[in-house]
């Protein structure tokens, strides 16, 4: 974007019925995707392929960068 110009805004017109959905995915689909992700992550943690997330801990940079 050139300096000194305001950001461009996308004008989609007036809202229509169905526009009240936030985001591109319906909530049910997001919940299903989340459940599949959690199940796969738990399966990967069991044999030691992954480590569980350290909740509440600051992220440290990876040593293999």
What's the gyration radius in Å? 21 Å
Query: What is the number of helices?
Result: 1
Shape: flat
Instruction: Name the average pLDDT.
Output: 75
Cα(first) to Cα(last) distance is: 31 Å
Strand elements, count: 0
- Proportion in β-strands: under 5%
Helix/strand class:
mainly alpha
Query: pLDDT under 50 segments (min length 5)?
Result: none
Helix content: 25-40%
Main sheet makeup: none
SSE succession: H
Describe the structure.
With 65 residues, the chain is an all-alpha fold. The protein has a domain of 25 residues. The radius of gyration is 21 Å and the shape is flat. The two termini are 31 Å apart.
List keywords for this structure.
flat; 0% strand; mainly alpha; single chain; 65 residues
Topology overview:
Elements: H1 27-45
Brief digest:
The chain contains one helix and no strands.
